[in-house]
Amino acid sequence: MRSLLALAAAIGAATLTGCAPMSTPSETKTIDRAFTVESGNTRSGNTSLHIAVYAEEREGRTLVCAAAAARGEKSFEGEWPQALLNRTRVYIGEEQILPRAPFGATYPGEDVLVGKSANCVVADVAWRSSFDNRKARLRVGAITLKQ
């Protein structure tokens, strides 16, 4: 697992507003070693953050799965997972597949994602041979939670 140091450094740089789901999840997948999982902490260090993404070919399109968890400071613990998903861009190689992943499963109060279910949607991006044998990766934008 890699650290989300960039996330921790960026927290406070933008205000997050509610986002409607991009699409209703079409299926779920159990999070395992095939997923890209990243973890880190908030700037205060009071909350651990975890996010997982995965992509595969589905009938010529790109299926993307996502989930997020947060454990720590109780006042924000429930908000962090959705905030992460709303600000996560999903890539394969250098190509952005989704600009955000609000459809992902959320796990407030949890600090382990492996073994949990991720929600999946089919993106409007055709699967390319250049995606074969490449894992999905993610970039998280800045997040601010208001009390």
Terminal CA distance reads 30 Å
Overall mean pLDDT: 81
Order of helices and strands: EHEEEEHHEEEEE
Tell me the overall shape: elongated
Distinct helical segment count: 3
Profile the largest sheet. 7 strands, mixed
The Cα radius of gyration reads: 14 Å
Strand content: 35-45%
Structural class determined from secondary elements: mainly beta
Uncertain regions: pLDDT < 50 for 5+ in a row?
1-21
Q: Assign a percent range to the helix content.
A: 10-25%
Instruction: Please count the beta strands (DSSP E, at least 2 residues each).
Output: 10
Describe the structure.
By secondary structure, the protein is mostly beta strands. It has helices at 5-10, 74-77, 80-86, and strands at 2-3, 27-30, 36-41, 47-58, 61-72, 88-92, 95-98, 105-108, 117-126, 136-140. Strands 1, 2, 3, 4, 5, 8 and 9 form a seven-stranded mixed beta sheet that branches. A three-stranded antiparallel beta sheet has the order 7-6-10.
